[in-house]
Amino acid sequence: xxxxxxxxxxxxxxxxxxxxxxxxxxxxxxxxxxxxxxxxxxxxxxxxxxxxxxxxxxxxxxxxxxxxxxxxxxxxxxxxxxxxxxxxxxxxxxxxxxxxxxxxxxxxxxxxxxxxxxxxxxxxxxxxxxxxxxxxxxxxxxxxxxxx
Length: 148
Hints:
Number of helices: 4
Mean pLDDT: 87
Distance between the termini: 20 Å
Oligomer: single chain
């Protein structure tokens, strides 16, 4: 995992509340709305209409469904550089459902997703990470702000 991926994973890990699920176990799950391998268009930030959400994994904890996505086609400005990918971000199923606009027939690109998920899972198991309940556009803005 390169330094930028580790930094992004660390920023994501620090942005949520924790310990609400300390007595619960994270499990692989299914969703009635989303499936691994899907690629979605979503309500993006201005200038990121080409961005896509690639579903890489679905988990549950208690009554919560967490959809793990890779975001591509972004314009994230950080430290004088511009990034176009967030390799992994966990988001509540309901928040993702509010964000998506159209299921595409595009082939998913999950390169680097497993490294991001592994970093999140390690932080989650240590009760140092959770998942977003914001819209995807707000998630991207939060990640960008955390990198600057």
